[in-house]
Design goal:
Shape: globular
CATH class of the largest domain: Alpha Beta
CATH architecture of the largest domain: 2-Layer Sandwich
Strand order of the largest sheet: 3-7-1-14-11-12-13-22
CATH topology of the largest domain: Aldehyde Oxidoreductase, domain 4
Number of strands: 31
Strand content: 25-35%
Oligomer: single chain
Number of helices: 19
Length: 779
């Protein structure tokens, strides 16, 4: 029986529910292990005048305290621009910017030591918002542009032109396992690091540079993470480097585990955006021109902000053809922790902008937004080229929107909502359907590669290791399924080894929804080489059995744990029997596989190219109910339709769709980052930062896969699903806007993201005040 296509449980499911799964902080402490902690800047922007550690070193149990002067290698690093530091040298750029690193024998000693650090800092004026950064000319990296046609001329000749600004808030990753690392010193300056990281190679290289040693002196392993969502793509490397620095200096194992408050306060988030737009359209609602300028809040350093901004620009079209368009983008530098990758990686901000514009056009023309979306969809033979020059192939967008509109009974429900809102004085209801066309691939060409190692043991069992890291998304389960089917053996005969830089080198991060596409294909490549080698050997065995008849290796079948000649199926052996005989004949039973994504390239200087291997599509219809007096919003029904190609594991893929959507719903509704005037994050715990809970789930939640076997691009005709469903959460926000429009006489209502209960209430209050002056407006 084939493994691919089956609902095989997540390979860590049993361990998770029984508590047997091992995470970094579950590893028992070794003898003389040290606890590592950080003392950061008490202000958001300031110059370090002096640091006094004399009282720290007198505390019982404190072994070591370090500043930037104690770093043996390079203190400066960054995945794009080397503008970050492990420890502050001179200028602190956010509240909590690490200044002192301490290693102690107990958590209590560490707590006392952190209080004993004395700093003298000269305050400097901080900048926190996009508007402040623009006013001060504080930017990171150059301005980028994607342009087609003559948008200025097209705007001038458009029948209708609307313009405005749209604000999008950030989002906390809120992974269950905080940033964590454990460093074990070895011989000759080598260090082994157990890290909760999405990018072991990034962690390896950063630690090596900090310690001033070659990369091969550092081994980074990752068994699993308790969530990542992009927050551990680059920013897991810093705590790993801190633990490694203490371990290297003391020759003792060192462990650093952020508590939830510190993790939320001092790590980066999803980028807040502010975008200014000007859109032209005709009386039917077809967009004729768009000019949009995106500004993101990058925080204090580049991190991955330029790439995040780039993807937001590449997704500003979403599912819609824009004939004359100019999209620009800039990253703003502020005195907040450096913002970073987050599931969707800029795509959500780009898509939210165009969906906001679609809603605005619909309200301006008095039409249903679904009709405006249909009218502007990408076409099949024409109107099928993106602003950056890539053809939208295998386009199922029109089919998808029609199928979902029919299955969710959109027209009847819209009529019912119109009738309800016209009579209800206590409740408002809203309905909206949005789409997603999400590009799959890293936009940096180099990262679209993967390697795998497959070893077959003499009992026929198999271990596969790749550069993929498991954070709950099921990539290891899918790789096991692919490996089992490639070798024709049961799923249970395959295990996935711990991800480690000494087995899989120069790996890409597990990100961009590409973990299975890249690493699964690399594993399949390794299995293909092994199968060819074993088929050559098996052909000689079967030829002997057949008394002189030759057997072609192409006639050898590997299936259901057996191997046979397809012309003589009665002559067969088990896979383990073949492996034992191959070993005796000194046949190589281990192999490396390698895969590169073909045909992807993008020139960010010209804004043109083919950045994506293919697109994953989806549609969501969401209905909401709002209390007119309190602003409380409930999501009453959601219908999702995803184009997943042919799922490798339908059960896990469904989990990705549901989880991604709910996380996106949280981003656009309840999850609000609130800061004080001094740059301190106020919503830094589960009591003040509101992710969706069980009571927030849609009362009716329908999830379906679209039948689309035509995706021949990726392995087993599957499609990546890690990020695209999150963007469908925008449909909930659009439904809230739709509901508020009923309270505004059908007119457009400005509403930022997130649409919190407070913002909804304030919007309704403002509309109510207007209605007193204009009695014709129904509230």
């Amino acid at each position: 029986m084939k493994s691919v296509g089956q609902d095989i449980p997540h390979d860590s499911a049993h361990g998770h529910v029984t508590g047997k799964s091992i995470f970094v902080d579950d590893i028992p402490p070794s003898r003389n292990e040290l606890f590592v902690g950080v003392v950061g800047s008490p202000i958001a922007h300031g110059r370090i005048i002096s640091v006094d550690l004399s009282a720290v070193l007198k505390i019982d149990g404190v072994v070591i305290a370090l500043t930037s002067r104690d770093i043996p290698g390079h203190n400066h690093f960054g995945p794009i621009i080397k503008d970050e530091h492990l420890l502050v040298e001179d200028l602190a750029e956010f509240l909590g910017d690490p200044v002192v690193l301490i290693g102690a024998q107990s958590r209590e000693s560490l707590r006392l030591a952190k209080k004993a650090v004395r700093m003298h800092i000269e305050p400097l004026p901080p900048v926190f918002t996009i508007d402040e950064a623009i006013a001060g000319g504080q930017f990171i990296g150059p301005k980028r542009t994607i342009e087609r046609g003559d948008p200025d001329a097209a705007l001038a000749s458009s029948e209708h032109v609307l313009e405005g600004a749209f604000e999008i808030g950030g989002q906390e990753h809120f992974y269950l396992e905080s940033q964590a690392a454990r460093a074990v010193p070895g011989e000759d300056g080598c260090v082994v690091i157990e890290s909760s990281t999405q990018h072991p190679t990034e962690t390896q290289s950063l630690v090596a540079e900090i310690l001033g040693v070659p990369f091969n002196h550092i081994t980074v392993t990752c068994k699993r993470m308790g969530g990542g969502f992009g927050g551990k793509e680059t920013q897991a490397a810093q705590p790993a480097a801190m633990a490694a620095l203490i371990a290297s200096k003391t020759n003792r194992t060192a462990r650093i585990i952020y508590n939830k408050d510190d993790d939320m306060r001092f790590t980066g988030k999803r980028h807040p955006f502010k975008s200014w737009y000007k859109v032209g359209f005709n009386s039917d609602g077809r967009i004729t021109a768009l000019c949009i300028d995106h500004y993101s809040n990058g925080g204090c350093s580049a991190d991955l902000s330029p790439s995040v901004l780039e993807r937001s620009m590449l997704h500003t079209d979403n599912a819609y053809y824009l004939p004359d368009v100019r999209i620009t983008g800039r990253v703003c530098k502020t005195n907040l922790p450096s913002n970073t990758a987050f599931r969707g990686f800029g795509g959500p901000q780009g898509v939210a902008n165009i969906e906001n514009i679609i809603e605005m056009i619909a309200r301006h023309l008095g039409k249903d937004a679904l009709d405006i979306r249909r009218l502007n969809l990408y076409g099949i033979e024409e109107r099928n080229i993106t602003p950056y020059g890539q053809i939208v192939r295998n386009n199922v967008l029109a089919r998808m929107i029609d199928e979902l509109a029919t299955s969710c009974d959109y027209d009847r429900r819209r009529a019912a909502i119109n009738k309800f809102n016209a009579s209800s004085t206590t409740e408002l209801r809203g309905l909206s359907m949005t789409l997603v066309k999400f590009g799959i691939s890293f936009t940096k060409k180099t990262l679209n590669q993967a390697n795998a190692l497959v070893n077959i043991y003499t009992d026929g069992s198999v271990t596969v290791t790749t550069g993929a890291t498991e954070m709950g998304q099921g990539v290891h389960t899918r790789v096991r399924q692919i490996t089992a089917d490639e070798l024709g053996i049961p799923y249970e005969s395959v295990t996935v080894g711990t991800t480690s830089t000494d087995k899989n080198h120069n790996t890409s991060p597990t990100a961009a929804s590409s973990g299975t596409d890249l690493n699964g294909a690399a594993a399949a490549d390794a299995c293909g080489k092994l199968r060819t080698r074993l088929a050559d050997f098996a052909a000689t065995i079967f030829a002997n059995v057949a008394r002189g008849f030759s057997v072609s290796p192409g006639d050898v079948v590997f299936e259901n744990g057996f191997v046979w000649d397809r012309r003589s199926p009665e002559h067969r052996m088990t896979f383990p029997q073949l492996i034992c005989r191959a070993y005796l004949e000194r046949i190589n039973l281990g192999e490396r596989g390698f895969y590169i994504t073909p045909g992807v390239d993008f020139n960010r200087e010209t804004g043109k190219g083919h950045p994506f291997f293919y697109f994953t599509n989806g549609a969501a219809c969401s209905e909401v109910s709002i209390d007119r007096f309190t602003g409380e919003m409930r999501v009453t029904r959601v219908d999702l339709l995803m184009d997943a190609g042919i799922p490798i594991n339908p059960g896990i893929d469904r989990g990705q769709i549901v989880g991604g959507f709910i996380q996106g719903m949280g981003w656009v509704t309840t999850e609000e980052l609130r800061y004080s005037e001094t740059g301190e994050l106020l919503s830094h715990s589960p009591t003040t930062y509101k992710i969706p809970n069980v009571g927030d789930l849609p009362q009716v939640f329908n999830v379906k896969f679209m039948d689309n076997p035509d995706n021949t691009m990726s392995i087993h005709r599957s499609k990546a699903l890690g990020e695209p469903p999150l963007l469908l959460g925008i449909s909930v926000w659009a439904a809230v806007k739709n509901a508020l429009s009923y309270a505004n006489g059908g007119k457009f209502v400005d509403l930022a993201i997130p649409a919190t209960g407070e913002r909804i209430l304030m919007a309704m209050t403002a509309l109510q005040e207007e209605s007193i002056e204009s009695p014709a407006v129904r509230i």
